[in-house]
Amino acid sequence: MLALPSTRLLLLFGESLPSSRLPNVSRKVWGQTSVRFVSQVNPDNGPLTLSSLGFKSDFEKTNKIKADKIERLDVPSEAPKSKVRGVGSNGIKTVNAVGVKKSLEIESAPFSAKSFSELGLPPLLLERLDTAGFTVPTDVQSAAVPTILKGHDVVIQSYTGSGKTLAYLLPILSEVGPLKKKSANGESEFEKKKEIDAVIVAPSRELGMQIVREVEKLLGPTDKKVVQQLVGGANRSRQEEALRKNKPAIVVGTPGRIAEISAAGKLHTHSCRFLVLDEVDELLSFNFREDMHRILEHVGRRSGADPRGSIAARRTIMVSATVPFSVIRAARSWGSDPLLVQAKKVMPLEAVSPSGPVNILKPTSGSDSSMRTQAALQSLPPALKHYHCVAKLQHKVDTLRRCVHALDAKCVIAFMNHTKQLKDAVFKLEARGMVAAELHGDLGKLARSTTLKKFKNGEVRVLVTNELSARGLDVAECDLVVNLDLPTDSIHYAHRAGRTGRLGRKGTVVTICEEPEVFVVKKLQKQLGIPIPACEFTEGKLNVIEED
Ligand SMILES: Nc1ncnc2c1ncn2[C@@H]1O[C@H](COP(=O)(O)OP(=O)(O)OP(=O)(O)O)[C@@H](O)[C@H]1O
């Protein structure tokens, strides 16, 4: 019986989750498309407001401040609201882009028609949400919170930037720590104990730290020690000392560090009630195999107890914008009556089959890669605009610079695949007067967090990075994502693209590629089911090239 989870794990890893690659780039030249017409695009795609969602309920007023904040982020005040040919007041010509929606449609905004108070959260947590500025739940939060509170194991799938973190944090904080529900006798009986109540696992330090900050925001300054970070790269003995001294109820960390401290006997998780795997498809990839094995075996397990019973006692919450069928299969075997939670849909995982009626997971041809593609389609914020631009290798960085100027982008993430080229790109951008910084795994923890802080503050305009930043990184102001190198597949495209356009904000994704790589973009376009028209950056404008 003890070997059961391992067997399950191996089954899952056998499916080689995220590594399907697009075909290698051939030397075939994409010469069929003629440049017939060049149109110019305003990077405005309309504001997100609660009234734009058609909400007229009581809580609309209380949410106005928040909505206004989002609206201000969305639309430069001088930007014209309608798209007509001609020059806007900001000097940008404004015509409809090829295949781009005219305005933000209702379904592209993630806010739910419910208020947080309808979700069954305890009063203190509701107060803290309000103080932290969270007034309306998103769709996925409205679906996930009551479902988890009812005790179900869940897989949460919803597009990037739709608020999945709070979707699992709120039910945890309802039952764990100082904000939790009062017991039957009216007492809030939070007391420090030796065991951990919730373990949250994330694939990168940055994402782990981000989750910690989100928890701390709700806990407030006096209770922030209820959560402890256990990320790699930081001083391990200090983390162990903090665990001993503070006796946190929640730990958030990377698989390696959690497994290491657990193996050293310094992390007591046997009676843990929640295990969250954030970016689950990444966590269950080969890279994390051994550490995840340990975590899945030890978290929520009580020594001497029937292993099946202890697995049922732990609620397992798996989260990602991209959920391939292999994750569904794993979740079924680990959970008890697990459910799939999406923004507007909750269904038993048992009902999900590769050829069943669930659109995101239903393969068109039965192959695993087509399943991944369907998942990628639902992982993209609907309001994002996508373009590609052809440039010679040696001109890519200059094209990036012109792209940033043409879109007047303030906060840009540029993705590359190799560290050396990434450093060169930063050097070239800086030499041309654009404030840029590098972020990749070769940097130490301090350098990484300093760079990220500067980027979030607006001190750095272009962050040149690699896959490290593709998952989960939340920088609300990011208005442009550029692929200076192609992503390996549509799943990776979706996670990179999802760094912009968060929570219904506007965002643009530009893939700069060489001519022989255009067919890969065409393939991505087809797999993701989105238009990625060609564009150029001339005279300080983004010009869309219409295809015949
Ligand atoms: N109800 C809400 N009201 C306002 N802001 C919210 C709400 N829920 C979440 N947010 C904010 O929205 C941003 C995106 O949320 P989050 O990072 O949880 O998205 P995600 O779906 O996990 O994205 P990804 O798939 O990229 O990890 C965060 O800055 C978060 O604080």
UniProtKB/TrEMBL annotation:
Lineage runs: Eukaryota, Viridiplantae, Streptophyta, Embryophyta, Tracheophyta
Read off the CDD domains from this record. DEADc (cd00268), SF2_C_DEAD (cd18787)
Alphabetic keyword roster: ATP-binding, Helicase, Hydrolase, Nucleotide-binding
Q: Helicase ATP-binding domain location, by residue? A: 145-341
Q: What is its EC number?
A: 3.6.4.13
UniProt keyword annotation of Nucleotide-binding present: yes
> InterPro entries attached here?
DEAD/DEAH_box_helicase_dom (IPR011545), DEAD/DEAH_RhlB (IPR044742), DEAD_box_RNA_helicases (IPR050547), Helicase_ATP-bd (IPR014001), Helicase_C-like (IPR001650), P-loop_NTPase (IPR027417), RNA_helicase_DEAD_Q_motif (IPR014014)
- Single GO molecular function: RNA helicase activity
Q: Which reaction does it catalyse?
A: ATP + H2O = ADP + phosphate + H(+)
The Helicase C-terminal domain sits at 399-543
| Domain (DEAD-box RNA helicase Q) ranges | 114-142
Record protein name field: RNA helicase
Leading EC class: hydrolase
List the Gene3D superfamilies: P-loop containing nucleotide triphosphate hydrolases
Motif range for Q motif? 114-142
